[in-house]
Amino acid sequence: MPDGREPTTVNVIGALAEVAAAEWDACAGPDNPFCAHGFLSALEDSGSVGADSGWLPRHLIIRDEAGQLVACAALYLKSHSYGEYVFDWGWADAYERAGGRYYPKLLSAVPFTPVTGPRLLVRDDLPAPLRRHLADTLAAGMIGLAERLSVSSLHINFPTETEWTRLGEQGFMQRTGQQFHWQNQGYGTFDDFLGDLASRKRKAIRKERQSVAAHGLDIHTLSGSDITESHWDAFFRFYLDTSDKKWGTSYLNRGFFSMLGERAGDNVVLVMVEDAGRPVAGALNLIGGDTLYGRNWGCEDDYKFLHFEACYYRAIDYAIEHGLKWVEAGAQGPHKVQRGYLPRLTYSAHWIADAALRTAVGRFLSDERASIEEEMQMNSMHSPFRRDDNESP
Asked: Which of 122, 141, 171 is the last residue of a domain?
């Protein structure tokens, strides 16, 4: 390569601990906290991710001739499809009914985190042609490992649109989905945002916030060293209560949250709710370059509209105050549209070894992409934003 840092080969490692945090983060960049060594290693070191949980790390790394890490990718050997948010249960069922063995499979993603971000991590101080070459080499390395392990498939979930397009050019099957994100249009206050909404929607949000205020709760937004172990103790209770009720299982253990605070505390925004001094609810967010990412929520008691306040409206407040462009409030939820979170495409890319399954999935994806586009158009029709410029705020 012209810069004298020609990579040699793609290597597989079994833990993030085998790579220095500074090396990994030089490839991951500063904009997406979920790609960072701190977040990913907290999952592994806490035991939330590992062989026992069905997420066996098989990360890829590329070093140049001088031994410097120039590219890497988080990759896992999966024995199930839990915690992914891009659902392939139907594919697995069809393949196994036909006599195939769908698991294990390979997955490049952030465990338990439906957030779009780079999956093929390359140092940004390299020339653009070399960066593209290294990203392509990582993708080819994933396929090579899938073939060596004789797994049924390889999946890359929630890559960036640029990566998704290039993966399609490399032969990966392309899939789309949708999430609901809020965009900051240069608002100075929450009322500025409300001023962009239709009158009926604006009044509905104000009533929801007034209803929460009537509960007499104390709501605090915490970050960095303001978050203590007692906060994490309380939040973990909320997380367990909600995840066990909703999904029947909890992916994250208590140790993960302490490690997250230690390793990525400045990226954490924790909304904590107290009733007469007693913690009753919380919402966990992480800050990226221009985005606030909503992740987990939990509540021990029933307070009408508190979920919307803690997860959606406080996130908007924070984004406006700190000049962030986006709020991503997690997976699912068409109910978010009426609260200003509009549909936005998400992406995944898939490589399948078996030709018959590949053909069947290809047909499914073609139909699904058309369905997603239609669904997004329908959701957009319910946008709360004013269509008549003459309507007064």
From this structure: 171
